Amino acid sequence: MNTRPSPLGAEWTDRSSVRIGALVPLTRPGWVEAGRHLLAGLELAVREVNDAGGIAGRPLELLVRDTAADPQRAAAAVEELARLGVAALAGEYHSVVARAAAARADALGLPFLCSSAVLDALTEQPTDWVARLAPPQSRGWQIYADFLLGAGHRRIAVAAQSSVYWASGIRILRDYLAPRGGTVIELDMRALAPTAVCDALVDNRATALLLLVGHPEPAVSIVKSVRRDQRLAEILIGAPAGQPEFAEWAALLGGEGEAIPFLRYLPECLTPLGARIETVLRERLADAPSFVAFEGYDTVAVLAEVLRSHGADRARAAESWPRVAVEGTRGHIRFSRTPGISVWQWARTPVQVVDRDPAEPDRFRILHTG
Q1: Average of pLDDT values for 125-136?
Q2: How far is Cα 246 from Cα 128, in angstroms, rounded to an integer?
Q3: Torsion sign (Cα): 213, 168, 115, 281
Q4: How much of the chain, in percent, has pLDDT values that exceed 90?
């Protein structure tokens, strides 16, 4: 497993560090670009905490483990990091992986602030050990469904792979759309080639196709097939899970990847802190930072405040979630209990539906907010 402790200055050499374990997808089949952005935000926040004096005079150190989108690898990493004495866990992008990590953290009594994963059932039972910054999937995907309805779409096809995450998304969409006159048509990508998706869309008279599949494949191949089929010139392609957020999407698809709405967890205007961090992250990434990079920064900002206020004792840190009050890059962060959600949840996470502007592909258009 990969270990990348954050650089520490010479002034820390005689003081023991306060350690945070970080779970990040850095190799395939994990979404590597998302992992790179998440790690950039985590590392920047650690550096700024240390530049400001650390945690009660002790340096903050990040122990990074590559999950590679593997739940078993993530669970093993949690156990290793717990043995190494980390005060808390941070990170993870993939929902199914985060669920495995959360289960181990809960069993071991290790505070875990999940940065990006959205699956509602992050743990099987309510827990005080886990908190989350990203909105629950039910909230984000219902906002996306409102966008579809507002745009006049009632017959919505989903190209779906087998996954707890995708199955949860389909259920959320179907339960929300059905009472409002919408129909969800499921296309099983275990049985269909990307080219066969086009015939299915025509046969079912779908006006929108949602990509509930892996990136880059088969998502890229499906988009190319649909875009090049003249029968489907008017169909909307959507990607609620956020595939078009990253530069790799534009590089692989060019103009065919534009005007594909997705969910993004940013406000219309960043906080003053967020505006400053955006500039620094842009330099570190040599690219516009995604919302995932801001999630990484906010994760460490919250954990640093918890550790300053309550020390490195794990139980005291976990007890502090309902008392957290931190100004993050995207708004004021507080945690509460949300009905149907088993972890402490930032209830006011900003949610947008955006797409890449065909007239200016590096710019994102805000289509809907919730």
Answers
A1: 98
A2: 33
A3: positive
A4: 94
